[in-house]
Specification:
By secondary structure, the chain is mainly α. It has a domain of about 60 residues. Strands 1-2 form a two-stranded antiparallel ribbon. The protein is rod-shaped. The protein starts with a helix and ends in a 6-residue tail after the last helix.
Length: about 110
């Protein structure tokens, strides 16, 4: 096989590989099959349950307008003041590790 034939064969192989990758990318962008599969598995692991005492994985909302208006962003302050006044948390919802990971990424929780 001559050098020119090898170059053509190599170039054709690389071109076909790139075309295949672009095709897969376009397919994913149009169908979102892979994204849906990943998000479904992640969502199934995002759970919570009531546990005695304060939660170790509590995540408080940020300073969004809705959270500020309804007072959710002030929850840590309110809870600290209640604790100083002698109140205790009897039970609190504890989120799963997966839900905590999603919250730490800055995504909205269900």
């Amino acid at each position: 096989m001559s050098r020119a034939s090898r170059r053509i064969l190599l170039g054709t192989g690389i071109l076909l590989l790139l075309a295949g990758l672009v095709g897969l990318l376009v397919w994913e962008l149009l169908s979102s099959v892979l994204e849906a599969k990943y998000l479904t598995k992640t969502a199934q692991k995002m759970t919570w349950e009531m546990r005695p005492g304060p939660s170790e994985r509590i995540r408080y909302p940020g300073e969004g307008p809705y959270d500020v208006r309804l007072g959710y962003s002030k929850l840590p302050d309110y809870l600290a003041r209640l604790d100083q006044a002698g109140w205790q948390i009897d039970q609190q919802a504890e989120i799963s590790r997966e839900m905590a990971r999603v919250a730490d990424l800055g995504l909205f929780l269900p």
